[in-house]
Amino acid sequence: MATAYDPAMRQDESEQGDRVFVVAVEDVHKTFGAFKVLDGVSLSVRRGETLAVLGRSGTGKSVLLRLIVGLETPDSGSVRILGQEFNGLSLDRIGDIRKKMGFLFQHAALYDSLTVGQNVAFPLLHHRGDLSESERNERVNQLLIEVGLENSLDKMPSDISGGMQKRAGLARALALEPEILLLDEPTAGLDPISSREIDDLVLKLQREHQMASIVVTHDLYSAKTIANRLALLDKGKVLIEGNFEDLQQSDIAFVKEFLKLP
To answer: Which strand ranges, in their side-by-side order, compose the sheet holding 237-242?
Structure first.
């Protein structure tokens, strides 16, 4: 059973080496002005594992993703991706590591002026200049088949539903065959049926690709469905970590209150 979070326990685990953890965040602090967003957060993810990060709005969940992808720098602490400490790396080296990470933004963030196929091809055009046009087109078609959008190649984002836009965003996130997948509120704004379809798709992709995944979500059902472990943030700290049943059995007042949220 999970207990109140013990940073020392996570520190001991991290010292097993980066062969174990694909993503390792250790004692990370991040402040914006007078507002302390993250206050000693430590989390790690193994290859083939999905971690869901839960918490109220403003608890630093999305900031944590930005730190992991290198878009923000921690005030203190360590962020290691595939064995590389981000702090002190050159922009070129950070760029190389980012190519091994796929990111699904909360609102899919598709380019409105590009077709679905062109959106999926965008990372390939910018980072896989070794591919011929036919190879690139084949890769795009394969990705769209994987996410169930094989008939949407030439459609514009405005012509497809929100759920389909999320699917297209997932296809784009997978374009460079990442080792790490970061998902920011993948079911936000979707109806229950579309949300469950996204959950099923994430599970399918995880089985097929065995990536390390981190999912930020308010959707408790989604977190329970797709994640091996869940971490609940409160006031910038990891309050508890474990599987869904562990959280249900917790005696911590905030955990009980959070799990009752619709």
So the answer is: 101-104, 180-184, 212-216, 50-55, 229-234, 237-242
| pTM for the structure as a whole | 0.85
Retrieve residue 197's tokens.
Answer: 């379809």
> Which residues lie below 8 Å from residue 156, measured CB to CB, with a gap of 6+?
112, 114, 115, 116
Contacts of 148 by beta carbon, 8 Å cutoff, 6+ apart = 167, 201
Task: Go through the domains of the chain in sequence order and give each one's CATH number.
Answer: 1-100+180-262 (3.40.50.300), 109-177 (no CATH)
* Residue 133 burial (CB count, 10 A): 9
For 215, residues 6+ apart whose C-beta sits below 8 A from its C-beta are 50, 51, 52, 53, 183, 186, 202, 222, 223, 226, 227
What was the pLDDT predicted at 107? 73
State how far the Cα of 37 lies from the Cα of 29, in Å rounded to an integer: 8
> What was the pLDDT predicted at 261?
60
Least confident of 8-12, 21-25, 103-107, 124-128: 8-12
CA distance 183 to 192: 18
Q: Dihedral of CA 95/99/104/110: which sign?
A: positive
Q: Note the pLDDT of residue 9.
A: 39
